[in-house]
Amino acid sequence: MPRAKRVDTLPVMPLRSTVVYPSAAMSVQIGMESTLAMLEAHQTDALEVVTVVDPGDSEGPVDPRALEKIGVRSRITDRLYMPGGSVQATVQGLRRVRIRTVERQDGHFVGQVEEIHEKEPDPAQVEDTITRILSALEALAAEVERISDEVPAVLRMNVGKPGRFADLVATLSHFTVTEKDEVLQRLDVGSRLRFVLRQLEGELAHLRERETGEPAPERKARPREQATDLRRRIKRLQAELGQIDPAEREVVQLLRRIETMDLPPHVGSRARQEVDRLRSAGIGSPEAEDIRTYVDWLLHMPWEHCAAVPAGEIDLDAVRAALDERLLGLEEPKERLLDDLAVARLRGDLQGPIPCIVGPPDVGKSSLVTAVAEGLGRALARIELRGRGEADLIGTRRTQRDARPGKIAGALRDNGVCDPVLVLDEVDLVGVGKVEGDPVEALEEALQWEHRAAFVDRYLDVAFDLSRAVVLAVAQDFQRIPRDLREMMVEIRIAGYTPEEKVAIARHKLLPRMIDEHGLRPEDVRFDEGTLYHLVRGYARDAGLERTRRVLAALLRTRARSKAEGEEGTWGFEEGRIEHILGPARYVATPAESAPEVGVVTGLAWTAAGGELLFIEALRMAGTGRLIITGYLGDVMRESVNAAYSYVRSRATELRIPDDDFGKIDVHVHFPVGAVPKDGPSAGVAVTLAVASTLSGLPVRHDIAMTGEVTLRGKVLEVGGIKEKVLAAYRAGIRTVILPAGNERDLREVPEETREKVAFHFVERMDEVLSLALIQGPKSERARAGRKSTRKKEERKKDEDAPPRSEKRAARER
């Protein structure tokens, strides 16, 4: 059943010389006896009444039955009693109502009124009608003094509400009271607009008829005046013929969009200014196209459209569930992200350092930020910073050629919300390469909390509130981030995965999804734990999961092909079948892993791709005491080799190295994989051990890896990247690791299962490393004796090959 209309009893205020429209306020001089009696009876400061036009004679009595029609529910305020008994008051129109009955009580009129609703028009017809009304008004404003030239401009700012627009036209065009009342009575907005248009076009036709009988003034006009007059006549003819000006139609469409959209006041004002410029520029000019593009950006930016709950209502349980659903393991990064979100929830805002997720490729950085966005219920906006210049990030000014918005504004527009999770990808590569301007300074200015609420893209040149967005950063090397940006961030590190973690992720996360993606069913393939472990050990020893994903995809593609050719059943992937499809294992045991060797040491290094084994080789040969260093090394690494050689020389007695060896032997230290740059002091322990081994002839244990910086006096200093280095050794099958004593506290970052399976030796001095890593024994003694015998043979051969000396010289030598 339809809901009954609300009926109220209100005082009725007849009007004869004016009309009050909804949403309009005007000052009214009240002198009618019935209305004065009403004001006397109701002394309320804000008295609600119904204003209605009395169609009777201005001097005759009011007929109550003539007032039973459409009126306006209004509010009377600011009464001012004037000499002569009249009252001046402000009447504020509220909304249209229907007056059902009117009767006289206590000298004034009272009526029963009910709510009514206007009938909305067809949007397409409304735009055409409004356009024709504006064209007619502009033609009339140029001819009739009673219509101000500003009227069309005022009306263009109100095209968003067609009903209110028609009321304003009737008011500003100085319609008669009867015509204004006719506008008030029409509840069909389309009919109201058409009535207004007929009145204006009728006045234009009447104006033309009057001018036809008058002679044209004989005055020679200037060319500019002639052009203006011609344009005025064209507009007038278009209005009389009912033709729609394309420029006016476009302006009306844009203004209606501006009015109907929820834009902040400063944005709406700027958009209306640009639309006014568009009308003056002409629809076909280059300037008009630039204005259209700019207005389109203003209208599509999500100024107030926020899709997620505020920071103070963040659901931490939902975020935790999303993280656990998408990622297996990575407990520490998850906890750190939840800590930051908990602070935001308690504070009620997102102020604070920006979480920066750091780690090698394919370890789950992107999955982490995606899971955070899902848990928060926010869109994900990603901005790649590699190679981006200042203009790429915050746009270029419209006065420049090929002006465009920046990537930050573009990401917000593309997502359509003002509160996304804004991810700064590859933040450690910002400013790298040939870029224009200073992107670091631009990014810093945009991300500072004090400026974030009023972020200004240079192209838009209007403040946007960026403080509602959750900002995260992603990098591979935290130390490569420019210092000013780094100080605004907090590091959340992902070191990589152990083989056991890779097997678990492949089993529970990768395989179910990839089997479905390849058109297979779970019963079509079988991977046991041994097979998966063989894959990650032999084909995917990287820190991340990309190679694991690739080898699984290669195996599944082969199975998909066999199934497409009609082979049913379950394929079990054993080592033989894997090697048949993928070829021999990519990673095999190196000499350093298979047997002890003299001068070959396994070091540990940190790279942006995670921890890596660093094999260092040292070789002795006859020479003049030179130290030769080869490999793609930085200055710090070369200094470490020189320091290592000096330290070994200082420990020659303890290592049983003859003093004269240093003058007769060249030492060549080489770092294989020359195409990969290597630098940093953390290889000092391994380099010193390699030099000591090759000069002393003592082999180095093959099952041990190490890291640490060494001073000239042999003190072992702590280094960074312990977690990544330990995981690299573990993935390579090394179960003994030497670390600086100062890094013992860093083991808490290493997974517990890895700590249980690796033996750690914490050393403070290089002597401890030599004792742990050099193999002392008969084999070493025989090797040293063999080298001494070789040296004596070489000396005897050298003497035999020397030219004969004279007897006199021989006597002097004796």
Overall number of strands: 24
Q: What's the tally of helices? A: 31
Largest sheet: 5 strands, mixed, barrel
Strand content: 15-25%
Structural class: alpha/beta
Taking all Cα atoms into account, the compactness measure Rg is 44 Å
Shape: elongated
Q: Considering DSSP H and I runs of 4 or more, what fraction of the residues is helical?
A: 40-55%
Spatial sequence of strands, sheet with the most strands: 1-3-4-5-6
Q: Separation of termini?
A: 135 Å
Mean pLDDT across the residues is: 83
User: Which ranges are low-confidence, i.e. pLDDT below 50, for 5 or more consecutive residues?
Assistant: 215-222, 778-794, 800-814
Offer a quick outline of the entry.
Helices cover about 45% and strands about 20% of the residues.
Features of the shown structure:
five-stranded parallel sheet, five-stranded mixed barrel, alpha/beta, about 800 residues
How does this structure look, described?
The protein has 814 residues and is an alpha/beta fold. Helix content is 45%, strand content 18%. The protein is built from 31 helices and 24 strands. Strands 1-3-4-5-6 form a 5-stranded mixed β-barrel. Helix 9 (265-281) runs antiparallel to helix 10 (286-300), helix 19 (499-517) packs parallel to helix 21 and helix 24 packs across helix 26 (684-696). The relative contact order is 0.05. The model is unreliable at 215-222, 778-794 and 800-814 (pLDDT under 50).
Secondary structure: elements and pairs:
Blueprint: E1 7-15, E2 25-30, H1 33-41, E3 47-53, E4 70-81, E5 87-105, E6 108-115, H2 123-141, H3 151-156, H4 162-172, H5 177-185, H6 189-212, H7 223-241, H8 246-260, H9 265-281, H10 286-300, H11 316-326, H12 331-347, E7 354-358, H13 365-376, E8 380-384, H14 390-394, H15 407-415, E9 421-425, H16 439-447, H17 449-452, E10 455-456, E11 463-464, E12 470-475, H18 483-486, E13 489-493, H19 499-517, E14 525-526, H20 529-538, H21 546-564, E15 571-572, H22 575-582, H23 591-594, E16 600-607, E17 610-622, E18 627-630, H24 635-650, H25 661-664, E19 665-670, H26 684-696, E20 704-706, E21 709-710, E22 716-717, H27 722-731, E23 736-740, H28 752-757, E24 759-763, H29 766-773, H30 778-801, H31 807-813
Parallel strand pairs: 1-3, 7-12, 7-13, 8-9, 9-12, 14-15, 18-19, 20-23, 23-24
Antiparallel strand pairs: 1-6, 2-5, 3-4, 4-5, 5-6, 10-11, 16-17, 17-19, 21-22
Helix pairs in contact: 2-6, 2-7, 2-8, 4-5, 4-6, 8-9, 9-10, 11-12, 11-13, 19-20, 19-21, 24-26, 26-29
